[in-house]
Design a protein that fits this description.
This protein folds into two domains: 209 residues, Alpha-Beta Complex (2-enoyl-CoA Hydratase, Chain A, domain 1); 50 residues, Lyase 2-enoyl-coa Hydratase, Chain  A, domain 2. It has eleven helices and eleven strands. α5 packs antiparallel against α6 and α9 runs antiparallel to α10. The longest helix is centred in the middle third of the chain and has 24 residues. The chain starts with 5 loop residues before the first strand and ends in a 10-residue tail after the last helix. This is Putative enoyl-coa isomerase. Keywords: Fatty acid metabolism, Isomerase, Lipid metabolism. One of its GO terms (biological process) is fatty acid beta-oxidation.
Amino acid sequence: MEYKHLRVNSERPFVFRLDLDNEVANNTMTDSLYHSIYKCITALGRNNECRAIVISSLGKDFCTGIDLDNLGQFNTDLASIEDISRRGRSVESRISTIQRAFVAIERCKKPVIAIIHGACVGPGMGLITACDMRYCSTDAWFQVKDVELGMAADSGTLQRLPKVVGNTSFAREMCFTARRVDAEEALRFGLVNRIFESRQQMLNYAIDKAELIAHLSPVAIQTTKTSILYSQGHTIQEGLDHIRDRNALARQSEDFHISMGPAMTGSERPAYARY
């Protein structure tokens, strides 16, 4: 299936790569791109031939922010609605469309890796903080620019960034001041896992990591991601109860049984034929 402003390729067995492809608009986020991300991630989440996903971007920058022409047209259309309640409903619907794209990434049962080069601004931050792992090149920089547009970020950055970096003071500084954060600072505060000298090195590394994940037990990976996500919004005890109940089933899967022998003997890892 084809998606507007989004290229999808199978890089290696069980590994899919998504490229943001809106170079004409310098990789800004448009309504059509939000729809494409949601539909594509949802489809890959249901695709048993996909076990790990890498999100990258074509062109000079990863994402340069909101498409202002797109937003301007929406505001023009909004002004034609006389009733304030109906205007509010229209804005709410648009924000929900944006949010569901990145919620789909966060809740996808397959691990999602973001690789960032150049600018990562506004909704680009919403996208990468919804991913499980993040790598960047030396030229990458990050900015929560929304306050400069007279609005608060509503794509998920305010909710996820503090949890990703584990430092609410740093997250608030980014969001309150709209200042740029370079690759080194992003690494220092835990926004990214690693920095690479070139985009190709970064891509190769991310694909290798995705392939490694894709060849581990799908049941174990899915259970691990689900538990981490659940535990972020619950107490430690609730998280312990959650993984106990999940593993009560997961440990009965064939994956667990065929993994034990190689783990004990150091022999070659088993192949997991079923997702």
